[in-house]
Specification:
globular, 8 helices, 288 residues, 9 strands, alpha+beta, two-stranded antiparallel ribbon, seven-stranded mixed beta sheet
Length: 288
Amino acid sequence: MSTKQKVLQVLENRKGDHISGEELAKALGISRNSVWKAINSLRSEGYKLEAVPNRGYCLLEDNDIISEQSVHKHLKNDDFFRLTVMERVDSTNSVLKQLAERGEQEGCVVIANEQTSGKGRMGRSFYSPPGSGVYISLLLRPKLSAADSLLITTAAAVAVSRAIEDITGRKTAIKWVNDIYCGGKKVCGILTEASVDFESGTLSYAVLGIGINIADPDGGFPKELEHIATSIYAGEPYSSEIRSKLSASVLDNFLEIYIQLHTKSFMNEYRKRSFVIGKEIYIISPNA
């Protein structure tokens, strides 16, 4: 962890409180000059930091920058997850699949503020503009058959629904396996991509991708999405830490289900949360 990251971790844990440069330096075993450089670097990245003589530095409450430190402080299971937060990527799933192929261990998480080529099901794209959502991918190495891999997406749908309701108080419902709805429109998409060991018929790894619309993007959603997509807050004000809290809650809730995935005990909750069970549906064949 760099000096800047260490300073940010302390400031995040004491967000809204002042801490002197001397106290920071002593706690981290660095010089006052190193603290000063870290503070200036954080400011250049957009962090709102107050410096008051005889009181010290303060990370202001209205900072809305998501970081490893801002998510970690809300995680209950921070021993399992290893976080990397990136400002802009093509796709968090693509980044994590590359790491998986290089042997990265289970529990690696990539979170992005923006995706330029976010992935949806069946080759579709997932609209992922900056500053309005959170885009998470988690690497898993479960002992599952390829046939049972759908359990990962189903478990994630339950975990996301729980997290949104716990953190925001908004009521959710699940459409199919991979879409979460609020107020009749989609606020979250889930995509699980996997690599299969053909000799054993089990998964080599799975990358679970979750994209959540928290606020309406600048300029609104594209015309083709207006009738199906919305955000959790949809123009209403929200806390600056929502993205970090929601990311942590999604991960914690998923891990709670994942460690007992084989029991399928979460399926009853999935069925209760589904709003398509008992409804008439249309089946569209890709060969039609």
